[in-house]
Structures are given as C-alpha cells and as structure tokens.
C-alpha cells in the first residue's frame, strides 16, 4: 500500500507545506504489518531534532464567559454554526511539550484512505479522519472536488470583495494585511479564534487567504462545511518542515490524545503555560490590544481600532443588528465614539424642532436584547480572570442570554451607547441615518437571534429551550 505523496496539502495550504526545512519531501513510505503508512525511524529522529529546538506555546481556546461579558457569544456561535464547527468552541485543553513533539515527529497521513497514524505516550495509534473530526466536534462530509471548486472560486474574485466588505480596504494582500482593519468585533474575534486555535499561530493578528476563506464561508449559511482534519494536518505538515517559529498546536494534540482515551496526569505532564494562558479571555484580548477596560463603566470594555484608538463600548446593544447575510450590518456606526464629549458639551446647540421630549428620550435606554450584567467586583479575581478547569471539558453548557423572561431591573445597567444616541438626536439631522438605522432594527432585533437558534440549532448540541418570545 503506497501513494505518491505522504505529505499532501490542499485548499491553498500548499505554500505553507512547501516551506524549507529538514525532509522537504518524504523519500520513502514505510508500511507497517497492518498496512498503515508510518514514518521511518530516521525520518522521525530528523523531525524530532528540529522540533526540540523550537519553543512550544499554549494553544488558545474560546472562552464563553468572556464573550458573554462582551455581548458577542451568540453571534460568534452563529458564525461557526454556518461552517459546522460550533461544537469546537466548547473545547479546551492544556499544551504539553512531550506529546506535542512526539505526535508531530511520528504522524503519517493517508489522504486517500483518510487514515492517520502516530505515536503518543510511546504507543502507536491509528485514527480515521472521521473520528478526528468527531473529537474536534466538527462534521465529516468531506468532498475534495467540492472544496477544490469552492476554493478556486473564492480565490478568483470574492476574496477581494469580501475583504472590502469587512474592512472598506480596496485590496487584499495576504502577506501584509492585519486583522485590526476588520471593523466589526464578531468578524475580528472569529478570525482570532481561527488563527490562535485552529491554525495555531503565535502571531494571530495577520490574516492570510485561507483564514479569509473561512470567514467568507461563515458569511454564507452552510455554503461550505470545511474538513477540519485536512486543514489540521496541513498545518502540522507546515510546522514540522520549518526550522524556525514557535509551535502553538499542542492543545489540539492533547484533545486528540484525550479523545483516544489517553490521560495526562499532572504528576507526569506539566503544561507549557504557567500561569494558564490557554483561553481567549478578556485578559488575553487585552494583551492582543483588542480591548481595554472602560475607565468609567464597570464591566465594560473599549473596543480598539487598527491604530489602538477606542471607538466604541462593549457590550453594545447595536451589535444585535448583526446578521451574517447582510453586509450593511458588518460595520458599527462610526458616529458613536468611545468618549463622553457629546454628553458633557455644555455649548451643544439644541434644535427644538428635532429634540425629544423627556418621555421619548427615556425610550432610548431600552435594551433591544437581553444582556447579562457585568460581574460583581468581588468576582474580578475569580474564574473569569483566572480560569481553572480541567482540560477537554465543555467550558459551560450553552444558554442563550436572550431569555423570554421578563427583565430583572436589578440586573439592568445603563449602556453609554444609548445615552449618546439621545445626545445625537438633540444635535439635529447630522446623524439622522445612524439614528434611524438603530431605531428601525430595535423592535425586530429582540426576537431575531432567538428565532435563529431555535429553528437552526443542532438538536444534539444545546439543551432544548422554550419557543422564542412572541
């Protein structure tokens, strides 16, 4: 049993897999007594020698608590649901140096039979791509012809068009573009999840064509369900053939081991990150310079643009108008800066013909969707900031924060975005378009996400809920 190539890259990853390094090409294929492709001892030693010289960094995983606090969890799950990878968001695992090097230096892939062989904890293992996808919580309906056609179609035109839709930039240069140009927090954090978790890059801020393709697939409901196993192994090929660069894929390898029934006892395995740095929580997002704590609103954050200026506040009710099939909602109104100038400007001119009555102005403080309250200050050093849960456990059962229950006044808090909206109305017609856009969406937004998740959620993923509010 043999094939032309043991290392096979697809979907635009061939450039990564062809990087220079030891063993640019497998010279021979070794077949074990069961007919499985494996590496020779010399090949494994060569890869291991290269990998041991490089730093092993912790893979970062999605953190639901933080995304709930930012008001983004529902929207991010909606995006990943469109490509069938929403279950992956509930997984997390620590990264260990020895299993990472052992897997990367011994695995061999057979893309024709869709079988993977590797060593972990000194034992040989055989894993079908189908089970690998199941371990990662993704679908296994791979069709190489369909994906090849979609990838070719995307590279021809939509990549530039889609990039322009989410950034307003006219051109896309994969070797130079950075994700801070992506304006909407949902798209930008979705890219960070892809680059830091799935593609496991140490510098996740740069965006390449493959990652932009994934974001494009997220914008089109079930247009494509990418094969996790293929992209994961393409990344492994790229990592072990390079001679430089940090290795950040170990958390996914830990998930594979746990999915195969292996254990990683604390007495024998020490994580590479101490203290824990394996979650994309608010602390990590601050280190990535995506957010900063708001100086005046407890539990709120300032969202930073590409020049590190605060542009608006999270959580933000206007995010509730975000829909993946409507590019008009992919830009937050630029008329709502993260400052209090409009609210404290004593010289503001008031046009009585356009000014609200006190009763009308109060309506602007109504929340279009139910938001979770910020954590109590006493919880600042709790699980949100110092997560301490065992690996390979769902972080929490998913519960929508848009519940049909009556709002609890004790849990509501003023959102600066709406006080600024009232101020904008007092300024006259300069921001009429932005004001009308929010007002038109405000009434129908309350039930939009509930309807979406109630009708399209995977039945085996989330606990059943009651019907959406009428």
From TrEMBL:
Residues 26-35 have a biased composition (Basic and acidic residues). Residues 11-22 have a biased composition (Polar residues). Residues 1-39, 337-390 are annotated as: Disordered. Residues 47-215 form the Arabidopsis retrotransposon Orf1 C-terminal domain. InterPro entries: ATHILA_Orf1_C (IPR004312). This is Arabidopsis retrotransposon Orf1 C-terminal domain-containing protein. It comes from Lactuca saligna (Willowleaf lettuce).
């Amino acid at each position: 049993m043999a094939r032309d190539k043991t290392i096979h890259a697809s979907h635009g990853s061939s450039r990564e897999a062809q990087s220079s390094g030891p063993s640019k090409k497998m010279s021979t294929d070794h077949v074990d007594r069961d007919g499985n492709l494996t590496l020779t001892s010399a090949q494994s030693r060569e890869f291991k020698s290269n990998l041991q010289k490089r730093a092993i960094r912790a893979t970062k995983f999605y953190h639901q608590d933080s995304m709930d606090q930012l008001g983004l969890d529902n929207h991010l799950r909606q995006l990943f649901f469109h490509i069938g990878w929403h279950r992956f968001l509930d997984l997390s695992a620590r990264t260990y140096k020895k299993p990472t090097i052992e897997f990367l230096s011994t695995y061999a892939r057979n893309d024709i039979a869709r079988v993977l062989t590797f060593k972990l904890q000194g034992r040989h293992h055989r894993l079908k791509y189908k089970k690998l996808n199941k371990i990662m919580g993704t679908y296994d309906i791979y069709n190489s012809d369909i994906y090849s056609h979609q990838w070719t179609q995307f590279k021809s035109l939509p990549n530039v068009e889609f990039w322009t839709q989410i950034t307003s930039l006219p051109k896309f240069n994969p070797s130079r573009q950075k994700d801070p140009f992506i304006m909407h927090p949902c798209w930008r954090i979705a890219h960070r999840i892809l680059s830091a978790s799935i593609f496991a890059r140490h510098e996740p801020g740069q965006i390449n064509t493959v990652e932009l393709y994934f974001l494009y697939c997220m914008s089109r409901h079930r247009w494509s369900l990418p094969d996790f196993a293929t992209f994961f192994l393409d990344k492994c090929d790229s990592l072990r053939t390079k001679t430089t660069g940090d290795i950040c894929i170990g958390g996914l390898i830990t998930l594979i081991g746990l999915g195969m029934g292996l254990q990683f006892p604390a007495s024998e395995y020490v994580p590479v990150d101490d203290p824990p740095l394996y979650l994309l929580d608010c602390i990590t997002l601050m280190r990535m310079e995506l957010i900063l704590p708001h100086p005046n609103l407890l539990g709120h954050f300032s969202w930073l643009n590409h020049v590190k200026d605060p542009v608006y506040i999270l959580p933000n009710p206007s995010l509730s108008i975000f829909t993946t099939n409507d590019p008009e909602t992919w830009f937050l109104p630029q008329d709502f800066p993260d400052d209090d100038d409009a609210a404290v400007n004593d010289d503001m001119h008031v046009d009585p013909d356009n000014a609200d009555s006190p009763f009308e102005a109060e309506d602007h403080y109504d929340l279009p969707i139910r938001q979770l309250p910020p954590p109590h200050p006493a919880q600042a050093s709790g699980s949100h900031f110092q997560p301490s849960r065992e690996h390979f456990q769902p972080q929490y059962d998913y519960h929508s924060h848009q519940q049909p229950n009556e709002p609890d006044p004790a849990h509501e808090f003023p959102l600066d975005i709406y006080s600024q909206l009232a101020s904008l109305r007092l300024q006259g017609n300069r921001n009429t378009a932005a004001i009308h856009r929010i007002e038109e969406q405000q009434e129908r937004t309350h039930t939009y996400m509930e309807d979406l998740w109630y009708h399209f959620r995977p039945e085996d993923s989330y606990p059943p809920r009651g019907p959406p509010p009428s």
